[in-house]
Amino acid sequence: MRVLILGGTADANRLAAAVADDPRIDAVLSYAGRTENPTPPPISWRVGGFGGIEGLVHYLRGERIARVVDATHPFAAQISAHAVAACAVAAVPLLALERPPWQRSRGDRWIEVDDLAAAADALGAAPRRVFLGIGRQHLETFAAYPQHAYLVRLVDPPRAPQPLRLVEAIVARGPFERAGDRAMLRDYRADIVVARNAGGTAASAKIEAARDLALPVVMLRRPVIPARQKVETVAEVLHWLGHDGTPAERGV
Ligand code: NAP
Q1: HEC profile for the chain?
Q2: What would the pLDDT profile of 161-187 be if each residue is shown by its tens digit?
Q3: Burial class (CB in 10 A: 0-12, 13-18, 19+), 154
Q4: For 89-141, what is each residue's pLDDT tens digit?
Q5: Residues 4-54: tens digit of each pLDDT
Q6: Do residues 82 and 49 make contact, with C-beta atoms less than 8 angstroms apart?
Q7: Is residue 221 over pLDDT 50?
Q8: Given this model, what pLDDT does residue 246 score?
Q9: Pocket of ligand 1 (CB under 6 A)
Q10: Above 50 in pLDDT, residue 226?
Q11: Ligand 1 pocket test: which of 79, 201, 225 has the largest number of ligand atoms within 8 Å of its C-beta?
């Protein structure tokens, strides 16, 4: 069975590893191409956009894809909407692997907002030291708020000067650890964090670290994505694909 996994997340990598040795599943992992050196997965992979809904329909038909798993980041709303539309046109079953959002817990000081502009507004007029825990492509919005100093963490070293007054640009690839993120926020004297409600564990360290340090977090709510069948775990995707699972996956 030919399966297209839309990736770019730790969940997609875990899914790729789980199906790699199943001779009945011939899966290809698709990356958008945002990072310079994506981790090569243990299955075949491709890089780059498909060319909108039409391009994705063309790909599904040309590659005889029987199932699509959308394991993209919850904030990658465009590709997810395209997958819903293209799978409907090509009559290919689609399943989304979507981890549940983080829930506010005791000690959290969240300010929840719907978009980046509202997040930037929520920082207020007075100068602050802000940890921007968001992707490189979203930094531009904050350039219009130059009273603040920003700490950013990027997967690739910045090529061009950043549009922001930076405390520091840390180059690192997750997953991150709570103690490490606590030290980072303390060392750079961040007094507020901006984050997207990604859910899962790969990016949760900064949220836990902010809680430990009693820092406020401007938390972006998730974008709305058209209705589709969804599950929350890799195990549920494997079940949908008819993958029997290794003994470890079956809990044996
Ligand atoms: P997006 O806004 O939803 O997608 C923009 C365009 O990028 C899509 O229309 C599509 O181009 C292409 N694209 C996106 N994901 C793709 C994939 N897996 N394979 C092939 N093409 C893809 O996406 P985004 O927010 O820029 O995120 C891009 C990628 O980074 C996603 O794969 C996502 O899982 C990963 N990622 C995103 C975030 C985030 O915060 N948004 C965080 C971590 C990882 P065409 O229309 O030409 O097909």
Answers
A1: CEEEEECCCHHHHHHHHHHCCCCCCEEEEEECCCCCCCCCCCCEEEECCCCHHHHHHHHHHHCCCCEEEECCCCCCHHHHHHHHHHHHHHCCCEEEECCCCCCCCCCCEEEEECCHHHHHHHCCCCCCEEEEECCHHHHHHHHHCCCCEEEEEECCCCCCCCCCCEEEEEECCCCCCHHHHHHHHHHCCCCEEEEECCCCCCCCHHHHHHHHCCCEEEEECCCCCCCCCEECCHHHHHHHCCCCCCHHHHCC
A2: 888 888 889 999 888 999 999 999 999
A3: middle
A4: 999 999 999 999 999 999 999 999 999 999 999 999 999 999 999 988 889 89
A5: 999 999 899 999 999 998 999 999 999 999 888 887 899 999 999 999 999
A6: no
A7: yes
A8: 58
A9: 6-9, 30-32, 34, 49-52, 55-56, 72-73, 75-79, 82, 135, 196
A10: yes
A11: 79
Give, using CA atoms, the residue closest to atom 12 of ligand 1.
49
Instruction: For ligand 1, pick from 45, 58, 78 the residue to mutate: most ligand atoms within 8 Å of CB.
Output: 78
pLDDT band at 247 (very low <50, low <70, confident <90, very high): low
Distance between the two ends of the chain, CA-based, in angstroms?
Answer: 26
Q: Which atom of ligand 1 is nearest to the CA of 75?
A: 41
- Return the residue matching tokens 């303390």: 186
